């Protein structure tokens, strides 16, 4: 039996990619999900179905719940908690409730960590964000950005304290701006939905510089870090994987070019005259990216949206 990873957030976009990469690397993945299976639909249900092929999936297991604690105690052993889940509903809304998000992210934390320690776990990996304080490429003094960034900052601080108190090792994996198949209905969805509808999508914030990392590369970096942290107690246990650092406008142009090569029509763009900067103009990670030939990735990425369109689901 391979080493066991308890992965929360496995039905999320990046969570699925991480689960699949862990399973391919020989880890046994336990994936407790927040809701009953009947509550998942659309792309989220598609991700759940794929997750069930690479992980032991359980439902109605919120973090810190009695049901999850019972599962941990009956598991026969867990080596790592990979806490990838976080409350992100309406995370771009200025009214996002950071305090409520922190409460959800850390619910039952001491009891959960104690159960994991008793089950043999020695390592806790918390997924972070470039919008946290001290992240984004601006050094330790960088402020948090948006109420969501505040919630992630406070969640990190709570975990740091609680994990140390439980006698476990703490690590962080900071996510930049991932993209790829199974992503949420955000920027990529906007582009492809518009193109398949015969429209020209508007890039509203073309001057923001972000760190664009394909989801498979992000997942590979996660597995490499987890493996290293399991084997080595020394050094700083923080990973900040980086991809292609470019403006949102340049990134959109690259997506358009890759899509046009694979589709039977052009993929035009319209760039807004951005004059408002509610977020920092630059927010990126620091570690070198994996790089390499991304032809297969772009085939899969464009193909995924083409299949959504063919099924009438790209709306």
Compact overview of the structure:
With 315 residues, the chain is α/β, with parallel strands linked by helices.
Overview of the molecule:
This protein is of the alpha/beta class and 315 residues long. The chain has 2 domains: 4-178 and 214-239, 3-Layer(aba) Sandwich (Rossmann fold), CATH 3.40.50; 179-210 and 244-310, Alpha-Beta Complex (UDP-galactose 4-epimerase, domain 1). It is built from 10 helices and 13 strands. The protein has a 7-stranded parallel beta sheet, with helices on both faces. Strands 7, 9, 11 and 13 form a 4-stranded mixed beta sheet that branches. α6 links the parallel β5 (123-129) and β6. The protein is globular, with a radius of gyration of 20 Å.
Give the SSE map.
Layout: E1 4-8, H1 13-24, E2 28-32, H2 42-51, E3 56-58, H3 66-73, E4 80-83, H4 98-105, H5 109-118, E5 123-129, H6 146-165, E6 169-175, E7 177-179, H7 187-196, E8 202-203, E9 209-214, H8 215-231, E10 238-239, E11 244-247, H9 248-262, E12 270-271, E13 282-283, H10 295-310
Parallel strand pairs: 1-2, 1-4, 2-3, 4-5, 5-6, 6-10, 7-9, 8-12, 9-13
Antiparallel strand pairs: 9-11
Helix pairs in contact: 1-2, 1-8, 3-5, 4-6, 7-10
């Amino acid at each position: 039996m391979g080493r066991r990873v308890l992965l929360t957030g496995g039905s999320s976009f990046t969570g699925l990619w991480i689960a699949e990469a862990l399973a391919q690397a020989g880890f046994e993945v336990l994936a407790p999900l927040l809701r009953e299976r009947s509550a998942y639909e659309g792309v989220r249900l598609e991700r759940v179905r794929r997750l069930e092929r690479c992980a032991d999936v359980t439902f109605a297991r919120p973090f810190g719940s009695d049901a999850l604690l019972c599962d941990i105690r009956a598991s026969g052993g867990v080596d790592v908690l990979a806490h990838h889940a976080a409350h992100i509903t309406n995370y771009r809304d200025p009214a996002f409730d950071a305090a409520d998000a922190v409460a959800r992210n850390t619910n039952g934390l001491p009891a959960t960590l104690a159960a994991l320690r008793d089950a043999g776990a020695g390592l806790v990996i918390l997924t972070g964000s470039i919008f946290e304080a001290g992240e984004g490429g601006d050094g330790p003094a960088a402020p948090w950005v948006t109420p969501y960034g505040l919630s992630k900052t406070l969640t990190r601080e709570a975990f740091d304290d609680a994990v140390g108190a439980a006698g476990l090792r703490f690590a962080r994996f900071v996510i930049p701006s991932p993209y790829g198949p199974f992503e949420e209905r955000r920027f990529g969805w906007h582009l492809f939905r518009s193109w398949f509808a015969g429209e020209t999508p508007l890039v509203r914030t073309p001057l923001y510089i972000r760190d664009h990392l394909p989801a498979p590369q992000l997942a590979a970096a996660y597995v490499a870090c987890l493996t290293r942290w399991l084997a080595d107690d020394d050094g700083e246990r923080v990973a900040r994987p980086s991809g292609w650092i470019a403006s949102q406008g340049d990134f959109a142009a690259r997506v358009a070019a890759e899509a046009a090569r694979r589709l039977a029509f052009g993929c035009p763009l319209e760039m807004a005259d951005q004059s408002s900067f509610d977020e920092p103009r630059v927010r990126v990670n620091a570690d070198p990216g994996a790089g390499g030939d991304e032809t297969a990735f772009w085939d899969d990425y464009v193909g995924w949206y083409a299949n959504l369109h063919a099924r009438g689901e790209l709306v």
